[in-house]
Amino acid sequence: MAGTRYVRYVIVAVFCLALVWYINSSAGPTTFSGSTSQPATSKPNAVDTTKQASGSVQGTTPNSNGLPPAVVNGPRMNATFVTLARNQDVWEIARSIRQVEDRFNRKFNYDWVFLNDDEFNDEFKKVTTALASGKTKYGKIPKEHWSFPDHIDQDKAAKVRDEMREKKIIYGDSVSYRHMCRFESGFFFRHPLMLDYEWYWRVEPSIELYCDIDYDPFKFMADNKKKYSFVLSLYEYVETIPTLWNTVKDFTAKFPQYVAKDNSMKFLSDNGGVDYNHCHFWSNFEIANANWLRSQAYLDYFNHLDQSGGFFYERWGDAPVHSIAAGLMLDKSEIHFFNDIAYYHVPFTHCPTGEQYRMDHKCHCKPEDNFDWKGYSCLSRFYELNDMKKPEGYEKEQN
């Protein structure tokens, strides 16, 4: 009896093995994710090069990690994401890339430029390349763009930092923060890697995008003749820019031809330009036209500010510097508020007002976290300047 049962088990086992062999032989060859073979859906516009360029450009990664191609048809703009980061920021910027790719770029595959005042290491390149769907490019910032200019009095600058540390002014004693603000104000758009692009989208470590973006903001900017955009606006720390507005007024007196006729002065000043109300667009998010920043008007503006020494004798941020330039030198119609790009950068959140929009675009932000209509926000001024109707339900988000 036991022998008969054993024979039955053997027959069943042989039959099962034969069936598995038949199925595998009929299915054809299998390519696993770890295979060195390239999948059919390799990224568009990938460049097969791993050479390291000399100087301030560290090369372009070929993007051979097999991410799917763009799923939205049509031409792309000459545009890129741009990130200023250091090697130790790798996991914070990885989070940001994942946010941008999931909510937008997996459908469009735009490039990504990473800039650093030091050389990027292999880990940073490997991680960021694996996450990005477009080409990734890595560049080192020239020393002259990340150092004290010759005209700066080092003793005076050090004294200012000591005083700001005593007053507990945020980043008041930081040298690197000042270099960053100066670089973002006057140089990033002139880096050799950035010269290939007309449009840029600035992305910083540890940001979050809360809603799907189903259209191309770069194309929207171009089609609607926009040159600068924002999602958050607020008041700058008064202690960091005591002489900035007077320096700007000296500039406009010297170059009145650069001031646009239909500008945004009412966003920047409550008394026709006599004083600055400290409103600015928060520049850790920007989608803008790099050619505008490369214009003679903006370069003259930056050089005038730079010569005054305010980046080091005070603590001028790139946000008010960009905002004042856009507010005075661009027509107000050339500045756009991206209400539909829901965004977080510590500690502020832009969450679109309107439940139906949030549902339609799969948003995961909390409406009560929205900064737009709080007392420290400057968005109401922008709406009033442009005669825009505030969205339904904004009153509930004012407190």
TrEMBL record:
Name of the molecule in the record: Glycosyl transferase
Family: Belongs to the glycosyltransferase 15 family.
BP GO annotations: cell wall mannoprotein biosynthetic process; protein N-linked glycosylation; protein O-linked glycosylation
Region of interest (Disordered), ranges: 31-72
Superkingdom, taxonomy of origin: Eukaryota
PANTHER family in UniProt: ALPHA-1,2 MANNOSYLTRANSFERASE KTR1
SUPFAM superfamilies per the UniProt record, alphabetical: Nucleotide-diphospho-sugar transferases
Keywords on record: Glycosyltransferase, Transferase
Entry's Gene Ontology cellular component terms: Golgi apparatus; membrane
Pfam families reported in the protein's UniProt record: Glyco_transf_15 (PF01793)
Alphabetical list of InterPro entries matching this protein: Glyco_trans_15 (IPR002685), Nucleotide-diphossugar_trans (IPR029044)
Active-site residues per Swiss-Prot or TrEMBL entry: 286
Compositional bias of kind Polar residues: 31-66
Keyword Transferase part of the UniProt annotation: yes
One GO MF term: alpha-1,2-mannosyltransferase activity
Glycosyltransferase among keywords: yes
